[in-house]
Amino acid sequence: MIFFTSCDSFLEYKDKDKVIPSELEHYDELVYGEILTKSGGAICKNLAHMTDEVGSWVPDNLWDSDKDERLSYYPYYTWAKEPQITEKGDENIDPAWEHFYNRILMCNIVENDLSEFEEDLDGVKLRLLGEVQCIRAISYFYLVNMYGAPYENAEQAKTAMGVPVNKEISIDNKLYRRESLQAVYDLMEKDLLSALDNFKKGQVKNTIFRPNKDVASLFLSRIYLYMKRYDDVITICDNCLKETNKGIISLEEMKGYDEYNQPLLNKNSNSVFFTWMERNSFFSEYSSARFFASEELRGSYDPNDVRLNAFFNYYYKHPIKNTSYSKCYGFFYRIEEIYFNRAEAYIESGDYVSGMSDLNDVYTQRNTEGQALDANDVTEARRLFREEKSKEFCFEDIRWFDIRRWNVRVVHNFQEFNDKSVVTSFVLEEGSPNYILPLPLDIQRQNDVIEQPKREDSKVLTK
User: Fold this and answer.
1) Residue 276 contacts residue 331 (beta carbons within 8 Å)
2) H or E element in which residue 428 lies
3) Euclidean distance between CA atoms 376 and 437, whole angstroms
4) pLDDT per position as a tens digit, 443-462
5) Given the DSSP bridges, would you call strands 423-428 and 459-460 parallel, antiparallel or unpaired?
6) Can you list the alpha helix ranges (DSSP code H) found in 333-408?
């Protein structure tokens, strides 16, 4: 059963402190307060811990007061069959399901209410329709790429496991079933195409704190990429780059980033399309045993790559992309991904030369030597592209989705807290059933008709 909370209280008249939205300006504030900025706690931290971006670390010497800060996310780090149960047997319920479905419900309500407005001289209604359709599509994107099957092809998607679709405009105690993977992708495409049309016709808000046609284009290119509709990816990215006023973060700007004064993610960055939702730092900076940016990831950057200093704090070895000094929210999307999405579409279509050109548009702004990457064929171009994408977008919630759709094998080493010489290696095999996350524990208990993914126990790598 999907529970949606704290939505109807805003819309029902109860006392003098409550307001019934009756004008477009009211819905403008409703969208901003209840959908875009309403805090419900940090979500999606588990995505990073399942990738090859994350490593485990224990100091050589431990004090009696030291503790192991890795325990809460250890089950995700080891791809446990039920990662919401900690090593101590406590429940650590995944909050993303509730958060995204809550926003979907609010988008449904606002979209329905906006249809009652006939006059829209300033384009506010069209802009708001674009915002809620865009956020609804983004919400389904996260849901289906966390709790649904990876998209392989159109035939597989007809029967593969998607997620429930909620079209209700009120809170209804009902049991939901999964829709097919294709049905969810079709819904996202429809919403994003409609959002793009509404954004182009409606009022323009020049802020990264509200959805816009740029981020709608980005997510449309993402879902086309996952569906392997490469010509559509190229078309959408072409149009976005022609119309946007955003630009790639320059080499000189990259050199000036630091954690406290000018972090990479900042509200004045000309590359950021949109930022929303709360997500705290992935890692504890001061704990005795902790997760950190993996040595493999940090070692993949060339010494003259400015991303080393812009992306990581070396003293604590943690990524600094999501820092409290950024003046941005935890989720953000930027123009560099448009170049990468088009590059992948070109490469997978066989035009690796055009793909490498897009890749180098970004890479040459990351390397102090002004070097460019070169490939002799599609296979080499694909390898270079995937390596660069993992470096450019580390800790931006993209890597887990790429691991799933590219069938990447990942190995995690875990040192025992009281004896770091004892190391266990866990492996996530290619095409693992654990690519699909289990539903939140409260949903598992309350909904006996929804299909559960068939996950398996953690696999230990034998030497």
Assistant:
1) yes
2) strand 423-428
3) 38
4) 999 999 999 999 999 999 97
5) antiparallel
6) 336-348, 352-363, 378-392, 399-406
